[in-house]
Amino acid sequence: MAQTLPYGSWPSPIAAADIAGGSPRLDGARFVGDEIWWSESVPSERGRTAVFRLTDDEPEALLPAPWNARSRVHEYGGGAWTVTPASELLFVEGSDQRVHRLTVGGAPEPLTPAGLGMSFGDLTFAAGPDGGGRLWAVRETHAGDRSPVRDIVVIPLDGSAADDPEAILSVVAGSDFLAYPAPRGDRLAWIAWDHPDMPWDASELRVGRIGPDGRVSEHVVVAGGRTEDGGISALQPEWTGDDELMFTADPEGRWNLHWVRFDGLAATGPEPIYPADADTGGPLWNLATRWFAALDDGRIVAVRTHGADELIVIDPTCGAVDGLETSLTGGVLVRDAQGSRVLLTGAGIRVPGGLWLLDVDARTLTALRGGVSALAPEWMPTSRAVTFEGPDGDVHAFAYPPTNPDATAPEGELPPYLVLVHGGPTAHASGELSLAVAYFTSRGIGVLDVNYGGSTGYGRAYRERLRGRWGIVDVADTAAAARGLAAAGLADPARIAIKGGSAGGWTVLCAVADTDVFAAGISRYGVADLRRLADDTHDFEARYLDGLVGPLPQAEPLYVSRSPLSRPETLRTPLLILQGADDPVVPPSQSEALRDALAANGVPHKYLLFEGESHGFRQAETLVRAFEAELAFLGAILGFETPGVPPIDLD
Q1: Residue ranges of the chain with pLDDT lower than 70?
Q2: Of residues 163, 153, 87, the one with CA closest to residue 123
Q3: What is the DSSP letter of 480?
Q4: Using one digit for the tens of pLDDT, what is the confidence trace for 406-425?
Q5: For every residue of 508-563, which 3-state class applies, written as one string?
Q6: Residues 443-487: pLDDT tens digits?
């Protein structure tokens, strides 16, 4: 029989440690002969990323501790490992960014030099013109205080470059940013963009001819880039034949699949493969991100997103499109394809995140890693897509109600709610099943995950709603969603809190400063001062604020007026501030200045600094302490008991 207890104080079997060891943080997957290899973060080993293979249905670590397959190119990395036909692992070691080769059962051997400020990512193994294999990569070179220089390179596999950096062949350069090296014969396709654009604003698909010296001697722009009306974003070039290239781009406002065909460098097209009012594509925060793959018979498996994700199969010979009924609805990425089988990562509204094997012909989806909740379904909340009216149009969100089979609230009590705002801000929440969400909902705290204007998944017009208005549109949309939830009688309007990390932390701070909607705020490594962000942040995002706010120095008055730290007198809402000590994106100085402003105003707050953490928490002990502190903080401010977690002493 269910107990009657106040919302927020319901007993729950979900501990913070379950979140740290719950749904794996997966970074990639490959078919390797008859085996499946993948990489995932290991919170219990200081958050390192290890590479595993599936053996007798059990994961076996191929990359032993303390090795860490993690790239820092563009700061967020991606494509930190690949595999040769001989099943050798080629990976970027996170501590020094050197590329190594590992034969299964052996010890890693360096392929690139140490101490020269080089990072590598987007590792791609491909056949060379001589029939041998070549390792391609995006290289980022830091030298003093100058901006990093990036090029696409070929790294020799004989180890000669470990002591001789000149042995690394620079194939093409000349752009601020590069991604997706895709060689085929004597041609190379890649994506390029320059400051002040981000890859979702305007990026070019280029195809170049590789000369006798191994370098690109000339190239053409096939799609994307700046236009009179704004920009076109091109992503993920994939050769489907010697003279046929497939990619995704958004000339009509949604990322859709296109072809282009070549005679030498003369291109025919691009031509749309499947026009749709949905996206096959997304923000390129991490290198090597993929949303589609061609099967051996020419069919294409692709993710189609409008709010939620779905999987489709396209037959380009006749234009037929077949929807695949699967349990995956959020964060779905296509990792690799072999025959009619596809490796996917993602989650659904009823299944947690995991690595999945999809057999397109058999119509089966099998969880290989994760994908299964250890808790009975009645403990896990099911999200509901909701839409609210905001000042600039519809605001999309996903609502998770309090869910606990053993507890109910007193009659007439409305639940507290925690409003989540994702980072980016160019990112997307998809309503998937989540232990991090269930940690709160199982205790009687509802969760509302908001896709404010600026989010992806709803087309270019929706994400460009934020252009020039960061700190305004996102705040207004999030506040409108919270008010709409309360107006519908689903939340206690006096007990709505807001939480976000990074850019989401900025929205948290602006929302508590500029609205009266939220009773408490939680900021994980949040932006508090735009001028400091512009001065301190890394090169990938160094001009991001040009589009979100305006270019400096012309727009400096906006940077000042919008930043909560520029008007500390508006900071009157209790805050929990969580910060990584080694964060290069939002350094601790911002969170510490925020802490000092709250202390000067006499506002209840707590500042927690986590040693060894960067931008995004990975270590198990950090995750446990952070979630327990968040729950204790909500209880202390919103007025309910939080059994099972240490109390928090507010300053």
Answers
A1: 1, 21-23, 128-132
A2: 153
A3: H
A4: 999 999 999 999 999 999 99
A5: HHHHHHHCCCCCEEEEECCCCCHHHHHHHCCHHHCCHHHHHCCCCCCCHHHHHHHC
A6: 999 999 999 999 999 999 999 999 999 999 999 999 999 999 999
The C-alpha atoms of residue 255 and residue 13 are separated, in whole angstroms, by 41
Q: Could you tell me if 169 and 160 are in contact, meaning their C-beta atoms sit under 8 angstroms apart?
A: no
pTM, 2 dp: 0.93
pLDDT score of 82:
97
For residue 329, the 8-state DSSP code is -
Pairwise CA distance, residues 147 & 156, whole Å: 26
Instruction: Give the separation between CA 263 and CA 222, rounded to whole angstroms.
Output: 13
Q: How far apart are CA 381 and CA 403, in angstroms?
A: 6
Q: Is 210 in contact with 187 (CB distance < 8 Å)?
A: yes
Structural contact between residues 620 and 578, judged by C-beta atoms closer than 8 angstroms: no
Which whole-number Å values give the CA distances from 387 to 40, 169, 430, in the listed order?
34, 52, 13
Task: Report the b/e string of 549-578 with b at 16+ CB within 10 A.
Answer: bbebeebeebbeebbbbeebeebebbbbbb
**Pair of tokens at residue 533:** 């962000």
Sign of CA dihedral 333, 323, 309, 304: positive
Task: Please give the structure tokens belonging to residue 80.
Answer: 């930190």
